[in-house]
Amino acid sequence: MTSATAGGTAPVPPARTRKSVTGTRRTVAVLFLLPCLVLLGALVVYPIGYSLIRSFLNQSGDGFAGVDNYKALFTDDGIRTALKNNVIWVVFAPTVATALGLVFAVLTERVRWGTAFKLVVFMPMAISMLAAGIIFRLVYDQDPHKGVANAVWVGVHDTFAESSAFPNAHPGRQSPLRPEKGGFLTQQAVHAGQSVSLPLVGVAPDKMPGGAKKAVQAPSEPGKVTGTAWQDFTRGKGVGRLGQVDPGELGYPGMKIEAVKDGKVVDSAKVRDDGTFTLSDKADGARLRLPASNFREPYNGVDWLGPSLVTPAVIGAYVWMWAGFAMVLIAAGLAGVPRELLEAARVDGANEWQVFRRVTVPLLAPVLAVVLVTLMINVLKVFDLVFIIPPGSSQDDANVLALELYRKGFSEDQPGIASAIAVFLLLLVIPVVWFNVRRLRREVRR
Questions:
Q1: Distance CA 55, CA 65 (A)
Q2: What is the pLDDT of residues 13-38, one digit of tens each?
Q3: N- to C-terminal Cα distance for the chain?
Q4: Half-sphere exposure of 95 (CA within 13 A, CB side)
Q5: In 272-414, where does DSSP find H-type helix?
């Protein structure tokens, strides 16, 4: 094609190869992207395609199974438990982690040491899931002397309801006591001016309270009922007299003694360090009772990793790890919030709660959506914590789809069902990813 000019016709310059906005030719861009595309195909596209095909094959892989593997997703008890737990994870874990991140991000703006606090909260993100699982397996240990959670729980419980120091104490041979409603009751009534002996056994010497002193026989007092409650046991074969206070035998300090008459408690006392106690004349004609509270087993805390609490316990470990991630992203979004809007709301008479609820949160909605969606995708494939923290007896109750996929594929040798679970997980993730992509495109258009 030519164009007319004053001097004749001039050739049109040849069209140049199309370049991107950065000036890079398309062929060069494709060459640079090719290794990445190959890796993407080998590590993502091929496994997805193979899993999809394998999910329609039988256990050996040489026959077509139809949708039988997918039917197992809704008929197998283990998979149904995993699906139920995944729903709990998706609903609670991202919500709690995001809410804590929001609270931490807002509050740390108002304190001088906010940066140090953020560092401490974010630090668990530097720990691998495996290490975090081992840490929380110890935190949730049933023994209060090992598990931090139960140590705190037992400490709080014992502040309001002190445990007994004598859970194994019981009357020995020829004892004047007989069992009664978890405690012990004297067989005969006592009278004023009488000194009563209440011998007990069953407490190991190293388990006796630290304040226990050598027991003494309480002297009788006019108008009062006195007595001694002590460990009627002396080390050494043939040493000591049964039913009598011997040198070296210890009293039961703090043990409660009640005087019961006609089914009612008319008086009570606590045993002193040397085992002696004193009751008023109200105890005349009553029977002495050692109530069940003296022999209550020590409170051993909560079974955090039992069937009923194992899933919330594992979710707690996850929140501990990911609340810092949510806090950092929300704090970055909070830094971009116009301070003029917050001040304007305060000038208009809004209190801090109203400013937070009606101004701060709506302005942070895009950031909160990013954090929530990211965590939802993350919890759909949670595996490490559920595999490490629950003991073998509770792992079935804490099961999730990613763990069940592993168990079906490797422990139970059912690759078809494992592939069906993998495809099902992919289908669960796709709507969340699609929502996130759509939201990002809307943000770009704005």
A1: 8
A2: 555 555 555 566 888 888 889 999 99
A3: 44
A4: 6
A5: 310-335, 339-347, 352-355, 361-363, 365-380, 384-388, 401-406
Single-letter residue type at 394: S
In angstroms, rounded to a whole number, what is the distance separating the alpha carbons of residues 178 and 352?
65
pTM: 0.75
Q: What is the pLDDT of residues 391-446, one digit of tens each?
A: 988 899 999 999 999 999 888 889 999 999 999 999 988 888 888 788 778 777 76
What is the rounded average pLDDT for all residues in the chain?
Answer: 87
Q: How far apart are CA 209 and CA 100, in angstroms?
A: 43
Residue 293 DSSP code: G
Is residue 267 predicted with pLDDT exceeding 90? yes
Q: How far from chain centre, in Å, is Cα 157?
A: 18
Going from N- to C-terminal start, the domains of the chain cover 68-151+304-445, 177-295
* AA letter at 339: R
- Give kind and range of the element (H or E) at residue 81: helix 77-107
DSSP state of 201: B
Question: Rounded distance, CA 88 to CA 232, Å?
Answer: 56
Assigned superfamily of 68-151+304-445: MetI-like (1.10.3720.10)
